[in-house]
Every structure is written in structure tokens, then in C-alpha cells.
Amino acid sequence: MAQEPLHIASEFPAPSVEDWRRLVDKDLKGKPFTALQSQLEGGLSLQPLYTQQDAAVAPPEPPGVAPYVRGTQALGLTEGGWVVCQEYSEPDVTQAAEAIRTDLDRGGWGVWLHLGGTHGIRVPDAEALRRLLAHAPLDTTPVHLEPESDPLAAAQHLLHVAEQTGVSRAALKGSLGVDPLGILARMGSLPMGLDATLSQAAPLVTSLREAAPGLRVLLVSTRAYADAGATSVHELAWAIATGVAYLRGLERAGVSPDVAARSVQFAISVGGQFFPEIARLRAARLLWSKAVAACGGSPEAQAMVLHARTASTTKTQRDPWVNILRATAESFAAVVGGADSVSTSPFDEALGTPDASARRLARNTQLILRDESSLNRVADPAGGSYYLEQLTQDIARAAWTELRRIEALGGMEQALTSGDVARVLAETRAARDKAVRTRRLPIVGVSEFPHLGETPVQREPRAEASPAPATSGPLPLRPARVAEPFEALRDASDRYLAAHGARPKAFLASLGTVAEHTTRSTWTANVLAAGGIEPADQHGFADIADAVARFQASGAPLAVISGPDALYPEWVPALTAALKSKGARAVAVAGRPGDHEAAFRAAGVDVFFYAGADLFALLSSLHQQLGVA
């Protein structure tokens, strides 16, 4: 006899979003649902759960169809993959040329050249550029230029080298790097001015449109903004505003927006927020498509050519090996976001000139993502994710709002020269710096889980570059890495070690049983190490006299009391007074003092360490008291 089928779906119905919400509200016990949201820079919020209800009313167009949210090619990057395009900025031409040769021989496809006497390779003429590209066949290697001055001269140098080596313009691929606003932001001046530069570039745009369809004349690089601390929303909005300024300038010079848009290359830095960075690259293509369409460009002209580079601001000098993980995640996000080419920075870039092993790791990061992880086998892997689709739209809306604000100011050039961009960056850096100082934005290996005994990674310092031209006012924009505040404390600790033979030490008096104090004491030791102060943990004291005796034996000038709050009223006042009487130059307590703060301070407590405090400021004050600064 046939068995009756089991109707599992009807007997065990799937829970609905409303069911989940009711359970969440119950567990929150009166807290608002917004407590589960995560705040992103740029005024965006991440929801704890995304469903089909959060997706766009109409699904985005498929890959290869305007507005290109899902990519500019119908098959995505499945045919060959993205271009592994490493970047080079070594001042010495010979050294840079050898690095290019090695990368191209071992898996690289393209080269991105930072040219100039201040931040890049010193290439004064076409002959120097020819030597730099001696191992990069121009008929098969995409070459991208990013000069810090006189971009039209650099463009002519590349065209001259191609002519000298017998390579037709039709075979050239890459970009010539004419980015006047990028130069203004990074160097602080633009001698010819925006309109004059674009007017001179116009004939080149027109002539190369047919003669060299694989070569883009104009560059929109967000390097200056990203390195100076821009949020992802501001960086994206300013990139589109720059592109719009170039379309308008070229139109005044007689080049139609349709032709001009086909001659623009974008280069965007990818930071450490994995999913938001994926969404931002997708939003970039959407916004550029909308902007070009508004200027009268055809759907074909609306396709963005996008290069993604791993961010410099996220990299650290301390425990630089963690940079390998950071660059891997950033490269992964760039590929999933649909970048046409990607450059992965060597892990030791912040220390000086990268060595061969660091370059190999950077290059192989992308090769593994492509050849072993097979990221090139899926067109738009982010497509269809409720989370990423909605986040793409949220970022696009926020960036479009900022773009309209820039347009109301008079455009990107006016926003730069008036100091508006510098003002926004100062506000952003202040907020981010606060997050770093309080460790709400943790930096692994620096502010979190530092390793005081690490063997320093030594690299040759970069060759002395020409000083940047003297400027006044809001430009140039100043680059800064997020780890710099805590790295400054570690640098001071290193100088103290060199002068005294030992690091500044803290006697960590852990009260109560191991189970009672371990969590807080471990946290406290981590904080102290982030400031370059070596913790010496002691516990199991018979009484205050025992604790003071062990403190004296340690030879530490600083004492930190850590343990359960319940023991503090009994131990902290007496122990602090005793420690101070026996030579403690400073006494700190781990934890919020609450109602006992006045009594504790009266007893001599100098500092309170707790989650959410400005730990950088507290550690700096201890450096002053210990004579470390």
C-alpha cells in the first residue's frame, strides 16, 4: 500500500520576517530595534537583516546593459578575468623598470605608473619613459600613466615611445592620465588651470578616439581624496563630480560629451569595509551612467572603465604582515565589485621601497583569487543579494546628494579651491580619529593585539624626492594613515628602549581569582601594549603589603590595578596610596570608576582605562608621566 506523502511545509511552516521581528523585540527587552543597526561613514546604516522586501522594485538590468550596475560586459569578467595591473612609484627608473619586468614575467598584465619628482618615478623625458618601459611591450601591455604635473607632456612622451618602438596607436591600451583636478588636489596647484588643460587635451581626445580606441586620455583618480581620509560616499561623489567637470570642459573645447565620456578612465581606492566597498563600485557605474546620460551621452558612452587599487590609509607600519590580509580582502572586494583592473599594494609599502618578496605576495594575491578561487568565472557575483542590491542603492543616493551639493557650489574645482573639500575631510578625519583613539575602529597589530616583541620589518627608505611646491590655503590635501596615532606611541616606546635598554613597564596588579580578573586584565594588557608599555601581570596577593612588595620588585614606574568592580572600593584607595608611597610615578585603574571616582582620585589614581575612553589620550598622558614622550 502506497504511503501518504509527508507535507512537511504545511506541518512546519517557515517563520516569517514578522515572526523574527517579534522574537528580536522580545530579546531586546525594551531597547529600540535601531540598536541592531550598524552605522557606516557617510550617514549610512546597515540593517541586521535584508529580505526581498528591501530589494529594488525592479531588478537591475543584466550585465552589459546601462546603467551598468551589474558590470559593463555581458559576460562580466568571465573571459580572461580582470587585468592584474600593479602600480609603481619608485623614484629610480632602473629599479622601477626591473620591478615591472618581474611582475610581467610572473603573471602581471598591465602597469600603472606614478610619474613625478615628488611622489613618483622621475621621468623627465621620452627617453626616460622608454627605459622605464623597456620590458613592457606596448602592443600587448596596458600602460596607465598618473603624472603629478604636466600631464599632457607625459601623454606625448608615451605616444612618442610607441612611435619609436614601432607600435601603432591602434594597438595601445591603457590611459594617458590627464587628470588636472587630481593634480590640483594632490600637489596644491594647477599652473595652466582646468579649462586651459582640457582645451589642450581636446585635440588629443578627438584624434585618439578613432586612432587608439583602447587608450583613454582623461583620468579621474580619487587617490588624493582617499589618502586624505575621505569617506566612501564622498570619494565616490567627488569622482563623479570630477568626471562631470571634464565633460563640461571638453564640451567647451568642442568635444561632445559622447566622445569625451569614452575617453575617461576612473581609478578608485578600495578600503577595508568589505561589503560596502563592493556596493560602492557597483554604485559608481550607476552614477556615472546617469551623469553621462544627463550630459547627452549615449548608452555606450555611459560605460565606466574602472581601475581599483587597495587603499593606502588602511595599511600599517607595525605588524605589517597583517597588511597582506587587508590587501587580500580589498582586492577580493574590488573583483566582486566588478573592477576592470586591480592593483594590490605590497604589504611593506608604508615602510619604504617594497622588496621583491612583498611584490610577489601582492601579485600572487590576485593570481590566487583568479586561478584558484575562480572569481573570474561568475558574472557579477554580488547580483541578487538583497543586502548588496539595497546597499548599492543607498550609497548611490547618498553620493548623488553630495554630488548635487558640489554642483551647487560651482563644481569640483570650486569645491577644492574654496576649501570646502578640505573642510569636509577635516571633519571626517576628526570623527575617524576619535573612533581609532577609542578603539571603536580597531587596528589589528597596532591598537588591538599588538606584539611588542615583533621583529621590525626593515626596508630601504624611499629616495629623497623633490620637495612639493610651496602652497598656501586648503591645498594640497594631506595624506594620513589611520594607524598613525598609535604608531607614534610605539615609535616613542622604541626610542625609550634604545635609550634605556628596556621598554616602559607597567606592574599589572590583578585582583581576585584568575576567573574574576582574566577578561579585564587581558584587555588592559592589550591596551598598555598598544601604547608601547610592557605589562607585567601579577595576581594572588595575600594583602596590600604583598602587592606593594611585588611592585617594588618589578622595578616598574607605573602600576595598573585590574579586577572585579566589587573589590575596588576595598582595595583601590589603600593600594593606590601604598603604591604611591613606594615610588609609583602613576597609578591607573582598569574599569569605569562610577560613583567612586572622587574617592579613587583623592587616593592618587591618575588614569581610568575602560572601553569607550580615549585610550590614545590616556596612554599619551602616561607617556608624559613616565618620561617616554
Automatic annotation (TrEMBL):
<dbReference type="InterPro" id="IPR036724">
    <property type="entry name" value="Cobalamin-bd_sf"/>
</dbReference>
<keyword id="KW-0846">Cobalamin</keyword>
<dbReference type="GO" id="GO:0004494">
    <property type="term" value="F:methylmalonyl-CoA mutase activity"/>
</dbReference>
<dbReference type="InterPro" id="IPR006099">
    <property type="entry name" value="MeMalonylCoA_mutase_a/b_cat"/>
</dbReference>
<feature type="region of interest" description="Disordered">
    <location>
        <begin position="452"/>
        <end position="477"/>
    </location>
</feature>
<dbReference type="GO" id="GO:0046872">
    <property type="term" value="F:metal ion binding"/>
</dbReference>
<dbReference type="InterPro" id="IPR016176">
    <property type="entry name" value="Cbl-dep_enz_cat"/>
</dbReference>
<dbReference type="GO" id="GO:0005737">
    <property type="term" value="C:cytoplasm"/>
</dbReference>
<protein>
    <submittedName>
        <fullName>Methylmalonyl-CoA mutase</fullName>
    </submittedName>
</protein>
<dbReference type="GO" id="GO:0031419">
    <property type="term" value="F:cobalamin binding"/>
</dbReference>
<dbReference type="Pfam" id="PF01642">
    <property type="entry name" value="MM_CoA_mutase"/>
</dbReference>
<feature type="domain" description="Methylmalonyl-CoA mutase alpha/beta chain catalytic">
    <location>
        <begin position="43"/>
        <end position="452"/>
    </location>
</feature>
<keyword id="KW-0413">Isomerase</keyword>
<keyword id="KW-0170">Cobalt</keyword>
<comment type="similarity">
    <text>Belongs to the methylmalonyl-CoA mutase family.</text>
</comment>
<dbReference type="GO" id="GO:0019678">
    <property type="term" value="P:propionate metabolic process, methylmalonyl pathway"/>
</dbReference>
